Amino acid sequence: MTEPEHDRPEESTQADVTLVARGLTATAQVEVSNEHTIVVRPLGEGTEWKRAIKPGDPVALYWVSGYEERSLPAKITSVEAGQEPLWHLVPTGPAERSQRRRTVRARVEVPVVMPWLDGLLVGSTVDLSEAGLRALVDGWGLPPEPGTRAHMSLTIGDATVDVRGAIVRQQVHGARWLLSMQFHDVEERDADVLRRRVFQALREERAAALD
Fold it and tell me: How far apart are CA 136 and CA 121, in angstroms?
């Protein structure tokens, strides 16, 4: 049986709430979370759009649980107005592993090495997901053009993760290059290491935001 904490976000944590009809995603503070209801306080500037949500509006909740992101379909049952509005939600289906987990990106700085021409580009990641990364490296010669096939080695804790894929974007900042890379066919063992590091960073970010 699925553990209860995986079925809904924990209280005093943050979750993303996607307003399905609007295609808008808001970060929210989870105020109440039990088997009957989930109450969230949307964060961010402005109050009018937060009050414009109506009972019956469909939403999708996303939150970090362990080393993965979970999702839960729900609907708004009521909205408490005020300076800091509260949205009351009720689930409309079961929680499951988020289908957007591969695109979940976190600010992660780990060492990276990329073979290039007759040498190596050395630097560190700026952010990381299961599907790709951005890395700032010490450049020399001409930077790789978008579409260039690439191979990078990342040092994550005690593990070395080798990823292959393609450069999708590059920006030159003087002697340093900011490279965006999309991964292709990541082995499951390496994907697991990447996923754990990404969600560790997300938990640390959200814990820091609550301090």
Answer: 10
Q: Which two tokens stand for residue 29?
A: 């503070």
CA-to-CA dists, residue 21 to 15, 77, 181, angstroms = 18, 15, 32
Per-residue pLDDT at 157: 93
Give the SS3 label for residue 191. helix
133-170 confidence digits (pLDDT tens): 999 999 988 999 999 999 999 999 999 999 999 999 99
- Give me the numbers of helices (H) and strands (E) for the chain, helices first please: 2, 13
Q: Rounded CA gap, 129 and 195, in Å? A: 7
The DSSP-derived string for 69-96 is: EEEEEEEEEEEE-SSS-EEEEEESS--E
Q: Report the distance separating Cα 139 and Cα 57, nearest Å.
A: 50
pTM metric for this prediction:
0.61
Give the integer Cα–Cα distance in Å for 57 and 40: 14
